[in-house]
Luciferase-like monooxygenase (Ramlibacter agri), 331 residues
Amino acid sequence: MSLSVLDQSVARAGVPQDQSIRDTLALAQHCEALGYRRFWLSEHHSLPSIVGTAPEVLMAAIAARTQSIRIGSAGVMLPHYSAFKVAEQFRVLDALAPGRIDLGVGRAPGSDYRTAQLLNPDPRASDNFPQQVQELQAWVSGAELPEGHPGRGIHAHPMGATAPQLWMLGSSGYGAQLAGHFGMPYAFAHFITDGEGCAQALELYRHSFQPGLLAQPAATICVWALAADSEEEAWHLFGSRERARIDRNSGRYGPLQPPQLAQRAYNEGEQAYRQQLRRKAMVGTGAQVAARLRALAQELEVDEVVVITWTWDPAAQRRSYELLAREFALA
């Protein structure tokens, strides 16, 4: 089983937002040294809690600072953009880091409705998502589009000996079925749904899979996890994430609070959600979290897990990845 990383450049209270971007760069270098397989970056817009808005730009900076780790988007929210322009961007990235680029795409807006309208005023943009995926694959791989397609004869440059690997991302059955139909690798956002619907989506993906980009289905899951040197410390650090999740349910978004300031009075409904969140959370020592990750991977029949970790202190985040790397003997 291999481990990978998803980072979102989370905003932190009392820290300039641009520092979160630089911390992501440092984390990518750290995780490469630890032996992680991939380093993925998310795309969100106009959120005070997540400041990673342009994964393709950040990927270029990481490519210049690393040598072996795969670098990817998790993902590009394709309905906002021209598939041709995305293909060009990722062909350039593949030139910077040949054979190391993952192009993960999704259909979700990664923002609120008003922000999505500013990115693409067409309210039906997502209806064209399947066609965009087909076009994108042709342009990133150098294949020709069908007769009659307006893009036939148009090519995304620069071309090279390698090409970005296209991934489908999702948290529902729609993306799973589309990934299966196109024969693409598929990543389920377990951390968004707290695992709800994950097993069903993976089953749908495998059942609907037709050979295409791949001969056999290949799936991974993106899981939130936090390890520390003691269980007590891990739960203390988890307080920042816990507060953010509870606040989000009532429409309150903001930077991540330091754990010593994250506690507030919760109402009865919030307390119930807090207990549910703690039951599902993968939090503890390195050994405890590793055991739960292995059990989940075995249950879902995946041989790779992508780990996302939020902490207010970047040192605690780096330590969490160190502990898991040691448990899985990555280096």
Observations:
- The mean pLDDT is 96.
